[in-house]
Write a structure and sequence with these properties.
alpha/beta; FAD/NAD(P)-binding domain; 7-stranded mixed beta sheet; 6-stranded mixed beta sheet; 16 helices; 19 strands; globular
Length: 454
């Protein structure tokens, strides 16, 4: 197959993984990134939520033979550990025995992917800000953020993987009036905090995790929540998802006294583990949560949007990175199918992925309500017990929605959404049965679910 010159704009997770796929197909790949090389200038704290790598993401990594390398920088989380306000905890497994999602650092994973990409022959160009594109010519214009030197990148095909606020997408949008675009924000933001390892002692020279390391910790509080994911250095990256305005809110907690009083009353078991809470809270930014839907994602065979540039989603299903990595898998499959005829590949890619990216975007917003509120509701906990028991007995008839999204890469997101809506309607009928709290594991309840599935 003839080698082509391919440009990728954006050296984040999706752009770096995509570059490996394309280089392994024998193409010459150049990646342009507006930031400095993060391997030399590591991302500062407060700008990134830890990521949850699950089966769709692993499939993307396995496709280029690098899954084993990435497992070295991840920690398996087997379920949620719910922290109630009175200090009690409740563990909720994510799936079957042996199933887990992996906590990974965005910056750490990105560094590993770029190293592996360079070993595959990819060339990276840093500090190169995209200032414009020429759709007809298939060229991209850059300005070096340090030297201010302007250059033009010519390629047979260009991929825009430059994130939720994509410069490539904006340029395509400005270049044509045949472009649908919708951007929506939650009224909530997020702020990154930290739980350090337990201090080292002579008896424990390496320090230890302050919390259970193989769990995603959640402090659900109805209208907001705190989460914590483990890191390789035995710390936890915490993220407060909180309203921007109102009571309580980021705007209201504007002094150290107010903030500490609120945390001590609301997250008492967490605040004891956060010695740098005040510094982290006031030093780290309060960032926005955005969903982006747009179409088309391509222009002829010249440009194609992928990852967050095409479909940015909020992080509450842990699928943003996984969905982007799945983009790479699907694109690679289509390149096989169409023998690298990029016009056919681009057209098939956007029509195949658009319904699925819209579905996971909607699921992610809905899961925010579940995580911040329903996970501590006795009725919700009972529902999950019923679903787990029934799916164990009838795995061919019932795969829980979370398992469809997280552990079933063969099931498209759009199908998972439809099946999940059907399951939720059935479960609401089951939970309304008299005496369900006592008889939830009875043959009668089982028969009732089977009746609704016919």
């Amino acid at each position: 197959m003839q080698s082509k010159n391919l440009n990728i704009i954006g050296a984040g997770l999706v752009g770096s993984l995509l570059s490996i796929y394309l280089a392994k197909r024998g193409h010459k790949v150049n990646v342009f990134e507006r930031r400095p090389d993060i391997r030399k200038n590591r991302i500062s704290a407060g700008k990134s939520i830890n990521l949850a790598l699950s089966d769709r993401g692993w499939k993307g990594l396995e496709g280029v033979g690098i899954a084993d390398e990435i497992k070295k920088v991840g920690i398996p989380m087997k379920g949620r550990l719910i922290h109630t306000q009175d200090g009690k905890t409740n563990f909720q497994a994510y799936g079957k025995d042996g199933q887990a999602i992996y906590s990974v650092s965005r910056g750490g994973l990105n560094c590993v992917l770029m190293d592996l990409a360079e070993k595959s022959g990819v060339t990276f160009h840093f500090n190169e800000k995209c200032t414009g594109i020429d759709l007809a010519a298939g060229s991209s214009h850059f300005e070096n953020t340090e030297t201010k030197k302007q250059t033009t990148g010519q390629a047979d095909h260009t991929f825009g993987t430059d994130g939720a606020f994509s410069a490539v997408r904006l340029q395509i949008q400005l270049s044509t009036d045949r472009f649908d675009y919708k951007q929506s924000y939650l009224e909530y933001g997020y702020k990154e905090l930290r739980i350090p390892p337990v201090p080292r002692t002579l008896q424990n020279p390496s320090g230890e995790f302050a919390l259970e390391q193989h769990a995603l910790h959640i402090w659900p509080r109805g209208n907001f929540m705190l989460i914590a994911l483990p890191n390789m250095d035995k710390s936890f990256t915490c993220t407060l998802f909180f309203p921007f305005e109102g009571k309580p809110s980021f705007t209201e907690l504007n002094t150290e006294e107010k903030m500490l009083h609120f945390f001590e009353a609301t997250f008492p078991d967490a605040v004891r583990l956060m010695p740098t809470l005040a510094k982290d809270y006031f030093s780290n930014p309060s960032s926005s949560l955005v969903t982006v839907k747009c179409f088309p994602w391509s222009y002829q065979d010249k440009f194609l949007l992928m990852g967050d540039a095409a479909h940015a989603i909020v992080p509450f299903y842990g699928q943003g990175m996984n969905c982007g990595f799945e983009d790479c898998v699907v694109l690679n499959q289509l390149m096989d199918k169409h023998s690298d005829d990029m016009k056919s590949v681009f057209a098939a890619f956007e029509t195949t992925r658009k319904p699925n990216s819209d579905a996971i975007a909607d699921l992610a917003v809905a899961n925010f309500v579940e995580m911040r509120d329903r996970v501590s509701d006795p009725k919700f906990i009972l529902q999950k017990k019923i679903e787990t028991l029934f799916s164990q007995k009838y795995p061919d008839k019932w795969i829980p929605l979370y398992s469809m999204v997280t552990y079933s890469p063969h099931i498209p997101y759009s199908i998972a959404l439809k099946e999940g809506e059907k399951q939720e309607a059935i479960m609401q009928k089951i939970l309304a049965l008299p005496g369900i709290e006592r008889n939830w594991d009875s043959a009668e309840v089982e028969a009732e679910i089977l009746k609704y599935l016919k």
